[in-house]
Amino acid sequence: MFKQALRPLVRGYATAAAQLNKEVNGFVGAVGTTPHQIRLNRLSEETGCNILAKAEFMSPGGSIKDRAALWLVKNAEAQGLLQPGGTVVEGTAGNTGIGLAHVCRSKGYKCVIYMPDTQSQEKIDLLRMLGADVRPVPAVAFDNPQNYNHQAKRYADSLDNAVWTNQFDNIANRQAHIETTGPEIWAQTGGKIDAFTCATGTGGTLAGTVRFLKEKSEGRVQGFLADPPGSVLYKLVENGKAEREGTGSITEGIGQGRLTANLAPDLSLLSGAVHVPDSESIKMVYRLLDEEGLYVGASSALNVVAATMVAKKLGRDKTVVTMLCDGAYRYQTRLFSRVWLQSKKLDTAIPEHLQKYVVL
Ligand code: PMP
Predict the structure, then answer these.
(1) Ligand 1 atom with the shortest distance to the CA of 202
(2) Which end of the chain has the lower number of beta carbons within 10 A, N or C?
(3) How many CA atoms lie within 13 A of 201 on its CB side?
(4) What are 277-299's pLDDT values in tens digits?
(5) Whole-angstrom Cα distance, residue 145 to residue 50?
(6) Full-prediction pTM beyond 0.90?
(7) Does residue 65 carry a catalytic annotation?
(8) 9 CA distance to ligand 1 centroid (A)?
(9) Which ranges carry the Tryptophan synthase beta chain-like PALP domain (predicted)?
């Protein structure tokens, strides 16, 4: 009796669920294959295009960088650079470090992270909770020997059974996106994609994804760099000169002062670049929250602004895909704090009707 009454209610609901992975092998098995590409409805209506954003905040370590972290470790293992109990050392703005800390815990490696002391406390706390040895260092340029990357290399060189994964110039990083992100976007759009845009830190996501989509579509899909203030890449792509556009940015993990080995081989594949000021990025953090219920960090918001700019360039009825790199949880004591926003002169960038979200 009970069974019969229930059957009509459950019939048919198993179809979508049947496509889920049944089981994956530990944390590392869960990296890649982020399930959703979210259509941003309001922005799609405004632009007359289909604006899609891949939900990387649903990656098991919470960000786009889980993919690169796993590929960097797998690459070191394949080259025989890491033996059981070894140490992974990296210089990172935080998210690669968090991905590496997860991978290291699941594989039994130690993890040492050098990061610029300008990054959010939330990322430092999380790294420590994941068992990483975090070493914040003064934020100095790459050509300074005290830059976090050089310190990471020197420390790894001083240890036995340790590797500096070198996310900026180790192309195992972009390979992760050639093998996973690109194919996932192609499958999730069914090939109906006209352009892809995202910001770059190492350049791995942009280069690897554009490389795959370009080859798969026989050159049809266009790639656009999205760049924050203080980076040299916007001008490099647009007029061939590596000059900074603007000064620093509130976005963390993106913007670059040089052409990394991950980006260099694919720079010529790009159709152009867009520059996004911080006032637009922060406004989009709040708009995504208010209009779409999405709680994402500033690089995700910058990517979404870039996607709307690309959509306007291309004209109506196009599909533009971008990345939601991580959640706002990693920056919330900054992004939602009035004092912090005022210190960056960005409190006035938030429209009146969105001010209610400034709660800290
Ligand atoms: N967004 C965030 C929040 C990041 O931490 C990073 C990487 N530091 C990126 C975007 C850029 O990714 P990639 O290194 O692949 O260019």
Answers:
(1) 14
(2) N
(3) 21
(4) 999 999 999 999 999 999 999 99
(5) 45
(6) yes
(7) yes
(8) 44
(9) 30-326
